């Protein structure tokens, strides 16, 4: 039966542990020998496309890129027919989509014979979460994700799909997560990736003050205030989130050894200042490195490695 990497929440503890292990362990460059992976992108991305294609190539396979213009999901043809078409040529499809429901539709239409990887949807960004956990483990646990329990991670700003997947992953590893955001931008229960459904061992705290969120944190994380498709809300969001910029004045409230994470692209001067993004505490380029690691782990897990 095909495997699916669509949310962190749906993975068993054993499967999640396997992905973390496979992401950084020695690999066989023939795992995908002669096999293709369809990369379907309804939204653009530099890091996701680069890391995905590189990981497929390093495992011995080849990647074929399909843009939104070529696919035309639900305008040119249905999500179901796209899935059926891909399944006739590929065993794995990795998709960056606007609507999370596409995964369930394709899974049903292909009778579960096409493995699906979520490269980002409106509700989850699980490959980014794996990369973020690996980056935090490098800094605080010599790369061992099983030794992160007790760390304090603060997410500041608009709570997005990135926030949800990251929080689910960290809470399951015993990391305490605080989300600092105005009420209108806070986590809302009910999404396919929902930190409020995680029973721990980490704790989730939601506050409406950035300073409260960051105080004594080991990790400070932020993301763009204006995500793709929300450009018409730019002025309002800048006003609503002005007190949630991650800058030097905010970072000094975290622990002295705290690190700064951002999934990029960054809107410098909005959610983050240049001084912090380019400063000594920033680990954003290590996150970029681990986007490839993340895809390596997911693809190896899809192929049944343990």
Task: Tell me about this structure.
The chain is globular, with a radius of gyration of 19 Å. Helices cover 37% and strands 15% of the residues. A five-stranded parallel β-sheet has the order 1-5-4-2-3. Strands 8-7-6-9-10 form a five-stranded parallel β-sheet. The protein has helices at residues 13-24, 46-58, 68-71, 79-87, 101-109, 126-140, 161-172, 210-214, 234-240, 248-251, 274-277, 284-302; strands at 4-5, 36-41, 62-67, 92-96, 115-120, 152-156, 176-180, 204-207, 219-222, 259-262. It has twelve helices and ten strands. With 306 residues, the chain is α/β, with parallel strands linked by helices. The protein folds into two domains: 4-125 and 291-302, Aspartate/ornithine carbamoyltransferase (Rossmann fold), CATH 3.40.50; 128-287, 3-Layer(aba) Sandwich (Rossmann fold). The model has no long low-confidence stretch (mean pLDDT 97).
């Amino acid at each position: 039966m095909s495997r699916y990497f669509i949310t962190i929440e749906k993975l068993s503890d054993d499967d999640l542990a396997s992905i973390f292990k496979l992401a950084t362990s020695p690999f066989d460059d023939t795992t995908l020998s002669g096999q293709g992976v369809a990369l379907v992108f309804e939204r653009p991305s530099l890091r996701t496309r680069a890391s995905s294609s590189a990981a497929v190539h390093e495992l011995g396979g080849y990647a074929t890129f399909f843009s939104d213009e070529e696919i035309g999901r639900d305008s040119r043809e249905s999500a179901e027919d796209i899935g059926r078409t891909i399944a006739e040529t590929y065993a794995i499809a990795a998709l960056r989509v606007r609507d999370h429901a596409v995964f369930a539709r394709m899974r049903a239409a292909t009778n579960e014979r096409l493995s699906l990887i979520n490269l980002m949807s409106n509700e989850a960004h699980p490959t980014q979460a794996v990369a973020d956990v690996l980056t935090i483990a490098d800094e605080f646990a010599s790369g061992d994700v099983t030794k992160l329990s007790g760390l304090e991670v603060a997410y500041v700003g608009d709570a997005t799909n990135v926030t949800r997947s990251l929080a689910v992953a960290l809470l399951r590893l015993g990391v305490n997560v605080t989300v600092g955001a105005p009420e209108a931008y806070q986590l809302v229960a009910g999404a396919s990736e929902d930190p409020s459904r995680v029973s721990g061992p980490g704790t989730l705290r939601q506050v409406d003050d950035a300073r409260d969120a960051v105080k004594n944190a080991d990790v400070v994380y932020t993301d763009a205030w204006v995500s793709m498709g929300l450009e018409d809300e730019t002025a309002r969001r800048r006003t609503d989130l002005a007190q949630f910029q991650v800058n030097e004045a905010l970072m000094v409230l975290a622990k002295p050894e705290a690190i700064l994470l951002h999934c990029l692209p960054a809107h410098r001067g909005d959610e983050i200042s240049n001084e912090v993004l380019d400063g000594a505490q920033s680990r954003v380029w290590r996150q970029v490195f681990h986007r490839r690691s993340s895809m390596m782990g997911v693809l190896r897990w899809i192929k049944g490695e343990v």
